[in-house]
From TrEMBL:
Any matching Pfam family: Clathrin
GO BP field: intracellular protein transport; receptor-mediated endocytosis
Signal sequence range: none
Protein name in UniProt: Uncharacterized protein
Organism from which the protein derives: Favella ehrenbergii
Assigned GO CC terms: clathrin complex
């Protein structure tokens, strides 16, 4: 994570995940997808069975002002309060009211 190469980290963590299913690996992979801007892969990964801590990663993305991946994650876990704040930050006011 600290090396600043999220795409390389995604590749490495995907390889690790094939050998071991652990919450730490899945959580790091979710964050790496978000950091790399790989939103479609992020959606695909979190919609499939995994043991990652999606809420924790979503909060981290929100605090780092990565609102689009945070929006994707808050939507997937049905955290509508945090989803609404993301939508406001993204300027999607009508969607925020609906959430």
């Amino acid at each position: 994570e600290q090396a600043g190469e999220p795409a390389a980290l995604v590749e490495y963590l995907t390889m690790c995940r094939k050998k071991v299913k652990e919450a730490h690996i899945d959580t790091s992979l979710i964050y790496a997808y978000a950091k790399a801007g790989m939103h479609s892969q992020l959606e695909e990964f979190i919609s499939a069975p995994n043991v990652g801590r999606i809420q924790d990663v979503a909060e981290r993305c929100y605090s780092e002002e990565m609102y689009v991946p945070a929006k994707i994650m808050f939507t997937s876990i049905s955290n509508f309060a945090r989803l609404a704040t993301c939508l406001v930050r993204l300027g999607e006011f009508q969607a925020a009211v609906d959430a």
